Amino acid sequence: MNITIIGAGYVGLVTGACLAGSGHQVTVVDRDHARIAALKRGVMPIYETGLEALVAETVAAGRLAFTTALAPAVAACQAVFICVGTPPRPDDGHADLSSVYAVAAEIAGALDHFTLVVTKSTVPVGTGDEVEAIIRDIRPEARFAVVSNPEFLREGVAIADFMRPDRIVVGGEDGEALSLMAELYLPLTEAGAPLVSVNRRTAELIKYAANCFLALKITYINEIANLCEEVGADVEHVSRGIGLDSRIGAKFLKAGPGFGGSCFPKDMLALMKTAQDHGMPLRSVETAVAVNDARKGEMVRKIIRAAGGSVQGKTVAVLGLTFKPDTDDMRSAASLVILPRLIKAGAHIRAYDPAGMAHAAPLLPGVAMAESALAAARDADLVVLITEWAEFRTLDLDQLRATLKTPLLVDLRNLFDPAAAEQAGLRYVSVGRGASPEAMPLTGHQPFAAMQQGLLAVS
């Protein structure tokens, strides 16, 4: 099938490369001339495992091309995918759909035959109706159908997610359009991927509902981690204990500094605003947003407490800046909140990230970037791990201890084994791993021995 992708960002580029890898003829369109020129040279605008190789392979095979010319690409295709950004509007938190609607108008002017218009961008319920109305208003005679096909790509493993998805969601009311979408995804469904066909508004809501539910799981385990620290429990064991329940599942039950990235924060705000506009507020989502916002402040206080109550004049080595490992994405990263607050408290920050420093540097003025984890830790008063990159797992803790001025490691991702850290001579502070039960008061509860004595006295 001949496919046009509009938007050479994260979603558009991965979608285009993967569809080309599935055997389709794909043209990726973007108005950013510098980005398209770089892609033609094989230079990726994002860091994503396996993407550079897949793009090179499909370009060499003649199935993937890049251009800034939208009209001819749309006129020649059977399906055009809208893959542009929908960031939150700064004034009210609603998804900014201006780019989606602008692209819809451009598509309308270029339609030449029956064409599938596929909304891949994450958009609120009813956006597909508006896209259809825009195109119909500009080209009343045009033959087209608007379909919702939300993406479920996790940064760092996006290619695997696309090629081996948990599900493919397609929303539309036009039978011919749904048949074409089934044909488009045949290479994936034949390999076992389930195709979920629903109406367009349902498909739009599925995306938001899925992301918000996962964010709720993260928020929940972070609050449980706080309780673990107070009662002497271990959140790692709690997570495993509840995650083995098939009704709950183990994923997204990892305690840490809160969720970030390009999806969860903006999607929660957008769904929250949509629900409020319809008089059906989602209280659980509203609470999760507030709890996650506060989470970064809690991590700052944890770091300062671990440093003895003050970081004034101290050098803090930071490992990991991106919102998660295996990406260079800094959007809503915990580091963007934690590091400025530490600087405000008087700390000197020296940081290292395997892929994100180029993007992080302009966002974190005053933070010195180091060439390695050990270089960041050299003569530091403490080291703080924020992002759990795989290379940090193999750090020689004895060498890290010898590099530090003060043997203090604050692990906000519970990456390291406490016993190994302590054996290396490090004072180790992590998240949700409480003190020993002997040190914890039984507030509000009577110990069994005292209860037994009371019962004997009564008898």
Could you characterize the architecture of this molecule?
With 459 residues, the chain is an alpha/beta fold. The chain contains 20 helices and 14 strands. It has helices at 10-21, 33-40, 51-60, 70-76, 98-110, 127-138, 158-163, 175-184, 186-189, 200-231, 235-243, 264-277, 283-306, 335-344, 357-360, 373-377, 390-393, 397-403, 418-423, 448-458, and strands at residues 2-6, 25-29, 64-67, 79-82, 115-119, 144-148, 168-171, 195-198, 315-319, 348-352, 367-369, 382-385, 408-411, 427-429. The strands form three sheets. The protein has a six-stranded parallel sheet, sandwiched between helices. Strands 11-10-9-12-13-14 form a six-stranded parallel sheet. A two-stranded parallel sheet has the order 7-8. The chain is globular, with a radius of gyration of 25 Å. 44% of the residues are buried. Residues 436-440 have low confidence and may be disordered.
